[in-house]
């Protein structure tokens, strides 16, 4: 599997030369120990990509030549995960896991029982999504939005073709929500805080058209529930 680097100035002409410098150049040359003649991928994080061959390795740079370019279309279903704010370290873990699972958008939510604060840390979480996208070979970096109010999350739920709210006291199984034939272009998953959703929040989401459902018998941490729900959704909608 070819290593992937995300760059702002993606070269898109076959035969053109490009210098991978900065932290990425150092990582490729000194950490990954990429050699001349090897190939690697570049992307702009918005779907466009270029396959390149290494011409020369410097101390902290890689000189590349573009051998192929392309564009990855977005999937037919957009998955948005609303994540109630966990503690800072758990927030990073949640972003990393959901990025690897294929979330298109992650919305940080200030739920009534949220214990985390991310107003000053959203940019750091975007870096986490950036790095996780490289690791999982994603040509599209998920959008990280924060911090949303309950009213804003309710609006997201209303606009979605399918909205799922995870709640440990529900008796509705997640697997029962997927029709045999579907036309779902947008799906929203709401993950509550460690302390659980309040009755008011559940009522608001239900009125907005969300399905309140149980993810499974074992109760996952808030930071881990997102990746499990995305996996179930991808399977249920036959995206995977």
What topology does this entry show?
Layout: E1 4-6, E2 17-20, H1 22-31, E3 39-43, E4 48-57, E5 62-71, E6 78-84, H2 88-101, E7 105-109, H3 122-135, E8 143-148, H4 150-159, E9 162-166, E10 186-191, H5 199-207, E11 211-213, H6 222-236
Parallel strand pairs: 1-3, 6-7, 6-10, 7-8, 9-10, 9-11
Antiparallel strand pairs: 2-5, 3-4, 4-5
Task: Provide a concise account of the structure shown.
It is found in: Cytoplasm. With 240 residues, the protein is of the alpha/beta class.
Structure description:
- Strand 3 and strand 4 (48-57) form a beta hairpin.
- The longest helix is centred in the last third of the chain and has 15 residues, at 222-236.
- The strands form two sheets. Strands 8-7-6-10-9-11 form a six-stranded parallel β-sheet, with helices on both faces. A five-stranded mixed β-sheet has the order 1-3-4-5-2.
- The model has no long low-confidence stretch (mean pLDDT 93).
- It has six helices and eleven strands.
- The protein has 240 residues and is α/β, with parallel strands linked by helices.
- The chain folds into two domains: 4-71, Ribosomal Protein L25, Chain P (Beta Barrel), CATH 2.40.240.20; 78-236, SPOUT methyltransferase, trefoil knot domain (Alpha/beta knot, 3-Layer(aba) Sandwich), CATH 3.40.1280.10.
The number of helical runs is 6
The CATH architecture term of the largest domain is: 3-Layer(aba) Sandwich
Helix content: 25-40%
Task: Please give the alpha-carbon distance between the first and last residues.
Answer: 20 Å
Element order, helices and strands?
EEHEEEEHEHEHEEHEH
What percent of residues are in strands? 25-35%
Q: Give the mean pLDDT.
A: 93
The number of distinct structural domains comes to: 2
Structural class: alpha/beta
Oligomerization = single chain
CATH fourth-tier homologous superfamily of the largest domain: SPOUT methyltransferase, trefoil knot domain
Outline the biggest β-sheet: 6 strands, parallel
Strand order of the largest sheet: 8-7-6-10-9-11
**What gross morphology would you assign?**
elongated
Count of distinct strands: 11
CATH class of the largest domain equals Alpha Beta
